[in-house]
Amino acid sequence: MMISRSHLLRPFLFSLLVVSSLASKTLHLFQHSHSVRQSSLILYFPTFFINETLLCIAVWFLLHTTSGSQSLVGVAITGLLAFITLFASASQIGFYFVTGSEVRWDAAKNVGNDPEGRKLILSGLKPVLAAALILLTASWLLTPGIFVVFGRWVSSLSALIPTDEPSVQLPISNRRRRRLSRWSRIWTLCVALVTVGLWIIRPAVPFNHMSGAVPFTLFMALRSQPPKYRQADTEPFPLPDLLQEQFWEPADGHFKGWAPGMGEFIYAGDSNSKPDWAPEMLPPGFHRWSSPEKDGINPDTPQDNRPAAVPLQNYYDPITDPLRITNLDQDVLEPLKTALKERDVPITHVMLVLMESARKDIFPFKSESHLHRSIIESYNTDDLGSIEEVNRKLAHMTPIAELLTGESSGFTPLDETVGELWSDPAEPGMGGINVEGILTGSSLSFKSALVNYCGVGPLPVDFMNEIQAEIYQPCIMHILELFNRLKETTSKEPSQDSGNSMQSIRERKWKSVFAQSITGLYDDQDVLNEQMGFNMSIYREDIAEPDAKYYHEDMEEINYFGFAESEILPYMRDVINEAVESNTRLFLSHFTSTTHHPWGTPEAYPNEQYFAGDSLLSNHEDMNNYLNTVRYVDTWLGDIMELLEETGIANETLVVLVGDHGQAFNEDSRISGTYENGHISNFRIPLVFRHPKLPRMQVSANATTMSILPTILDLLVQTTSLDEKDSEVALDLMNEYEGQSLIRPYKASQNGRQAWNFGIINAGGTMLSVGSAAVPYRLILPLTEDYEYIFSNLDEDPDELSSIWEWQLGPLVDRVRDRHGDEAAIWLVDAEKIGRWWVDERKRLWNYHETA
After folding, report:
1. If we measure between CA atoms, which residue out of 179, 125, 135 comes closest to residue 156?
2. Which of 239, 478, 757, 826 is 20 to 30 A from 790, alpha carbon to alpha carbon?
3. pTM of the model
4. Total domain count for the chain?
């Protein structure tokens, strides 16, 4: 007797659906088990599988209550659901294997819509395919058992489901079958009632999220629509006692005063008035002082139909910002003040190097750091020879970073030369300012770029919605263009001195150029760079053209984004030489890329093994690859410094080196990577203001990179590298930004107010890092119900190895009070309020609001 193909296919498809669904849910529950009390997990355990049970029952009915052509439709629908569930489950398992985190389908959809983002997704295809193969195999092996057991259960419940499957028929008498069916109904009814009762009484958070099931969660994400933009409303400040009139500060010189009201803002002056220094036609970025008429826009045009460049109603006002603390009333730090009296420090050019995934503990790599201990622990502690050898390798990892920061790695001095590396020509005691304690403003690269270049808080929504809005402050490139326009309106005759005197430098115009060896299309980076004011950008798309000036056929792609860093070097040399020849001041920015996943280096580059060999094959491979890219980029930074020497501009160039964000690995936290991971290793980054004629200074400031822009302006003013008019404008604009200057004593608090630090966590709209310069505490604030609160005390736990996780604020406050005291608990309550206010305030400033 021949068995039809459908009789073989239906059991397998049903088994595939069951196995994939249960695998997905098991992983989902496991990922949240650490933050849910075991008693609650056991009590509500049956409720987590309601969706899967209903889905399987519906599919069973679909397969067994249809016949003829309808049966084929049932099989087709079941097959579609089974393979969608297989895809989703395999993706979740593969993503967890790589990152330790869970897939968010709405975020995956956004990345998948980007052609360059699809390369990022495909880079993790191997573990997904492996997971799919395992699920297919398990489904095939378990098909008879799953189909028979489920079939007999359903068959015993009701006679409404006729079946011609002999395997599901109970091999017993009709009387006993009826008796078993009756007991099955009773037990099923009892279990169902108990499960429904538990489902009704269980808390929504976190159990609704934990009950989510594929393919439902996948379908919901695909149906979601991107939000539209409209003006957001002002929310009252949650700590009004700090805004009382007794704390208000009067205007003084360039300082415009500080006078926020209680609830509704009370303006101390008309901050929206066009400044006296403003030319008739302001450059892009100064929309706060622009008007639609001057931009050529009909003011009667409905706001929703206006171009993005049209200024909207909301803007940043330093007078009414409840959080603003300025240190511009303080004198510059003494070593810098003394050095500027003794010598000229010309800043003709500024170069900003944004370093991908640059952790502070690898710039330079630090002995006795948590990362160093992780490497040593991978070895047999009795094998002193191996430990000595790996320490020798680590000592050679970041010699350039040691020179740039003035920090020692803590290893014994190098006993041999390390290739042809850059040697710092600065005099002893000179070299610039190294800042300790800096945190990134976002662990998403281009949101971080907005903080660094523009001194703004990024928009707390997923991905780069900022490119559809208006940057609420001028970026540094916009300010340099403003200086250019001011020179066009001056009646002063240019100096006849064509040399490098300070007077000649001050009279030159600026040009802003961006250069990188990787794609500029990912996440619309090219659009963002134009929006931020770069006059010219060079990307992989430019240098990969056969007619590009330095194109050669053996250009090597080291990752899915583009080429090795060295491919951009001749283009950067040309940009510098052109600026020198044309007497132009250059703002040159470069973004490194090698330290980005998948941490590949050029084929000819010799990779080292830092972890013990047997550990390398277990869970240290990614970190080992990352450390090799760190060494590669360290050498590349030396090449950049040599380029400045070679082109003759090293002694007149301020080089700002800053990480876009850090990079967490398995050695740091249970989740690796930056995606939806608020671990401190993703936020601590290096920041250096390098100039061979600035004194070597080690500055400590628990701040974010929001301070970069005002610090650059402050340095240009203090070194007299701007003419009188530009200096006045710079001093005025420095008072418009939220960040403090890092060349003055940093104010951690003032009149009870704290200098709060906020960090957007990749992808942007789900979690927020909240900290303060006044205390060592840190809160990861969930912005949706799908995430936990996380509290840490960085004084006691600097590497966040024992953070406190809770789904609700109340229980978290209780645990924090028990472990860290009342002060920490009070801070936590305030931090939660301030964080939520800050999120609403960013949306207001970006004139953004979610609508259906």
Report:
1. 179
2. 239
3. 0.88
4. 1
